[in-house]
């Protein structure tokens, strides 16, 4: 991809106004970070922003500005803003976990009745000795459920059916 006016384009055109140093083989010496040059090179090759894991977008932005690649600057800025929006969005919610104990006969009903945004994370059998297991004593399970709740600093959530039922029971 050719970007007229960019540092590398002008360098290849032997722009005399562009101060550059060459080594004994004629290779241009550019004192920049090679790790951050990789996304610039990938952009020029493919026309897409490809950033290796562990590289900061801000470093790629600096390189895009240095090499005078306005379209790449725009793409990196979009990526930075999207990352900030995602972080802000994630901070507005918190994961609330519950552990519910139920008998084997209740397990199917519990799983099918799980709603209000609760998701089952794991179902674990409570360990009992086999010889203690009789018809009178059914296997028990721990059901771990999770729900994303708005992080408004409040502990109670009015959308939670269990909380609503408890409130109704207190008022009756």
UniProtKB/TrEMBL annotation:
GO terms for biological process: monoatomic ion transmembrane transport; proteasome-mediated ubiquitin-dependent protein catabolic process; protein homooligomerization. GO terms for molecular function: cullin family protein binding. The keyword Transport applies. Keywords: Ion channel, Ion transport, Transport. Residues 3-72 form the Potassium channel tetramerisation-type BTB domain. It comes from the Eukaryota. GO terms for cellular component: Cul3-RING ubiquitin ligase complex; cytoplasm. PANTHER family: INSOMNIAC, ISOFORM B (PTHR14958:SF29), POTASSIUM CHANNEL TETRAMERISATION DOMAIN CONTAINING PROTEIN (PTHR14958). This is K+ channel tetramerization domain protein. It comes from Oesophagostomum dentatum (Nodular worm). The lineage of its organism: Eukaryota, Metazoa, Ecdysozoa, Nematoda, Chromadorea.
